[in-house]
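User: I'm writing a tutorial on reading structure tokens. Could you give me a worked example: one chain, its sequence, then its tokens, then a sentence or two explaining what the tokens reveal?
Assistant: Sure. Here is the example chain.
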Amino acid sequence: MAFDGIILKNITNELKELINGKINKIQQSSKDNLTLSIYNQRPYNLYIDISANNYRVHLTNHSEKNLQTPSNFCMVLRKYITSAKITNIYSLGLE
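And here are its predicted structure tokens:
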């Protein structure tokens, strides 16, 4: 399935419930995916997978085992966005 503007708009609308949420934890279970634990009146897990064959972003209740040594990217995210508040989620038109 193509990841086009219509799909992106629907994902953006689904993730709007995370606005004003606080990022509590960032986990990495493989080199291509991250899970952000977010609290906004209840806990959410935002799963982000950037692998070439299986890219996706969705909310999940499933938790995976962490890598023993997270990537530098994950460590930088932990440094700068842990405890951050999500103020807005949007896409520019259908881009």
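What the tokens reveal: The CA atoms of residues 37 and 43 lie 7 Å apart. The longest strand covers residues 22-30.
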